[in-house]
Amino acid sequence: MVTRSRVMRAAMIALLTLTAAAFSQTPVPARVAAGYKAIQESDLRADLGFLASDALQGRLSLTTGDEVAVQWIAAEFAKSGLKPAFGTSYLQAVPLIEYRSDRTQSTITLRRGGSERVMRFPEAYGAYKSDVDITADVVFAGFGITAPELGYDDYAGVDARGKIVLVFDHEPQETDASSIFNGTGNTRYATTRVKALNAQAHGAVAILVVAEPNRKHLSNQERQARIGGSAVRKITPPLQALAEDDLQIPLAIVNDEVARTLMLTCGTTPTDAQTVIDRDLKPQSRALPDTRIALHFRNLYAKQGTSWNVGAILEGSSPELKGETVILSGHHDHDGQTEEGIWHGADDNGSGTVGVVELARAFAVNPQRPRRSILFVVFAAEERGLLGAYYLAAHPVRPLATTRAMINFDMIGRNEAPSPQTDGLIEIPADTTNRLNLIGSYYSPDYRRTVEEQNRHVGLVLDDRFDHESALNVFFRSDQFPFVLHNVPAFWWFTGFHPDYHHTTDTADKINYRKMAQILRLAYLSAWQFGDEAHPPRFIENPKGGH
């Protein structure tokens, strides 16, 4: 039994720790003080109370509630006096196609030896923004990775032109801390979009993805099924895609048994192929004899729509450097409403949206400006696949080659806590009330050092656990990732998962506003430093394992 004296003693220790941290923080320079002091919890409470209210109906992309959020962000940028980012407008149109797959009519058929095996969800399934009818022979291409700088290419010696490619999810040696693929963390090569683009570049007409057979964790599909919305919603949100996208081939998911069946004629098994790749980093790619697949995807509907990236610019003070850019970003959409209720999205990502708006105000009221320009942008349709971020990365308003750093906020309002999303997959510290996760640090140690230096003024606990695990795929799951693909030093600032993640209970009353304000103060100082320092962060294209 916990005694009252023990509780009081623990509370006193916690208070003394926080007090010591507060007194150890150094004052901010006078040139940034006005903006720093402008970041107030009262603003955050008022703004997030509105964005996560019932009136906005969960802000599902292409719905009225999200349109209201878009107009509110644009109005707040205008009131701050910042310049529109997109010519004369604060809005960048993001053309989308919304669709809903008809799983009863969508099939994946294996043809071999004169017979057919017709497969449907959940053993084999896919979806695409238009109806699909593709029939082709199948080749196996290992992990689907081409990394010449690492001396690794799953497509060496295999011809994928006009074929359907079968690949493993994730990447080799992901439990090996010394792996060339960033040790136990993920690299850019591990995500299915990059694998699909690589298959397309090698002439493939479609791609099949299977969870790596020797995995020590849940498959992506098993993990996603534990997320709140996936677990409890009777009707899932519609799918959305960019109307025009670099990726133009369909992707399908197959289960372990289907993959074993597909590889029965090629002289190896999925398990044996991965074992060899993990041991020797020698590709095991090959054609699959007498293996032909027909993809037949049908949609219940498909319609065009437009969402919006919302952006504003603070022009830099230096004639020589104002053409360079620092990005502060978040996303405004969430998961809408269903018969289960409203998916309020206070933390995800009302917190990030409000954070970008509050920082825009802070920079605007500060009398001095950094030498480089700051782009404040809140992206469309992140929940539907990072669509607004991919669109801006493909249609940048300022050159990505001179974009020096990106701070992306996605869920910066809560204390990390155990949940089905993370149970058994990652350790959560006992006390997360002052903790901030930085995701992406191995791609730019310089960036991390700058944030750590500025944290002397703020006193948060900085954590990089998510950079050293591969089960949760966190690195790919927010809007910084499309910019990492363009070699921009871009971090996801994230306070962690919690039991209300993607539930109707992600509400504004549960936000830790004190910590959220501290995070924004740290972001303000860090962005100022990125915008003003002589040597901005370097991007490391090929982080190695063991660090």
Explained architecture:
By secondary structure, the chain is of the alpha/beta class. The protein folds into two domains: 26-98 and 302-532, Zn peptidases (Aminopeptidase, 3-Layer(aba) Sandwich), CATH 3.40.630.10; 103-292, 3-Layer(bba) Sandwich (Glucose Oxidase, domain 1). The protein is built from 14 helices and 22 strands. Strands 1, 2, 11, 14, 15, 18, 19, 20, 21 and 22 form a ten-stranded mixed sheet that branches. An eight-stranded mixed sheet has the order 4-3-13-6-9-10-12-5. A two-stranded antiparallel sheet has the order 7-8. Helix 2 runs antiparallel to helix 14 (513-532) and helix 10 crosses helix 14 (513-532). The chain is globular, with a radius of gyration of 24 Å.
Beta content: 15-25%
Helix content: 25-40%
End-to-end separation in angstroms reads 42 Å
The low-confidence runs, each spanning 5 or more residues with pLDDT under 50, are 1-23
Q: How large is the count of helical segments? A: 14
The CATH fourth-level homologous superfamily of the largest domain: Zn peptidases
Compact overview of the structure:
This protein has 547 residues and is of the alpha/beta class.
Keywords for this entry:
single chain, 547 residues, alpha/beta, Aminopeptidase, Glucose Oxidase, domain 1, 2 domains, 10-stranded mixed β-sheet, 8-stranded mixed β-sheet, 14 helices, 22 strands, 29% helix, disordered N terminus
